[in-house]
Here is the input.
Amino acid sequence: MREISLREAAARQLSQYCSSFYERDIETSIRSFTPGEWVIVKGKKREFIGFINPLVTQGPCLRVVCEKNSERTPLEIVEYLLSKSLAKRSKYIDYKNYRLCYGDSDFLPGLIVDVFQNYVLIQINTAGLDKYRLEIKDFLIKSYPSKKVVLFDKAEYRKNELLPEYEVEEISDVEILENDFKYSVSAKTIQKVGYYFDHRENRLKLENFLKRIESLESGVDLFSYVGSWGLHLLRGGVGKVEFVDQADMQTNIENNLKLNNFEGRGSFTRSDVFSYLEQCLQNNNKFDIIVSDPPAFSKSERNVKKALGGYEKLHTKALKVIKDNGYYIAASCTHGVSLEDLDRTVSNASLNVGKTLSLLDIGVQGFDHPFESLKSKAFYIKYLLYQVCE
Here is the structure.
């Protein structure tokens, strides 16, 4: 492997285990390197192993994987790290389905692997790992012989590293088990890698909270996707839940209500969420509990200010249709938005509508989405539970 030297400031960051670097951080010219080439990265006193892609359109071009302390080949390093990820997840004994690999947090930048009942879906978004895509697939086939392993490429996530497009592998409905709920996601409506495991613990916390209070009559699951939040509301004792999403998720919602024996206690409305809340306001429809878990409002930390404005607008509309002493759950998956930021948008919204709040609970992402600290870029899930009063 060829060597790459970092500039002094970046080399100090490397010693603190910063794993991503930009061309401006690198002293060596990178023009002669091939996309995905594995390299030795020289720090101040130690050497590391990583891979580089000089064709990256934006973001880091150098990814550090591990310290250079053995003679493992790049493929052996990848398989070793996958083995570590598998061993770590196996300790969560009630996790039947889970995220097996979470990119940088498992020291495999750009690799996402989710394990479902019938599938293992792989997404690879960095050139250094894409060159071993077939070997990664073979490793997972051996690790999960009863499941179908699929390279589930998404072109929009691969274009930043100018990765090639391959023929898409066909899949049928994805079956999921989480918190003893069964889900079926139609291949036609599937998003991202198929399911959002990241709020698993927060959904369970909310359900357990609901079981400790008087039963609520009505609830809403905004941005519902396959209905995970709403199903937890129902099992927590909420009488009836409306699921709202702008995508055509009706068949998915109806199937998942049936799978979990909640037929007749839920209904689906296809609508833009902001329009739906405005219609509720005009019709004087109010609810005991609302969960708001939108897609990321910003893909870049440069647009965080705009994202915060979007959250405040959403919360303002939602708080207007919550009954006195009802509950509001504000969730966020936007990188760069902190728990404090999210809380401030809800507080501002409460001032806008003349209501007072009690913050009852907070949460972050589940154990299969590890992160080093609250400052880590791998930390992105926020959950806030409020009681709302006049």
In short: DSSP finds eleven helices and 18 strands in the chain. The chain has three domains: 2-67, 74-171, 176-389. Residues 74-89 form the longest helix (16 residues). The CA atoms of residues 123 and 154 lie 7 Å apart.
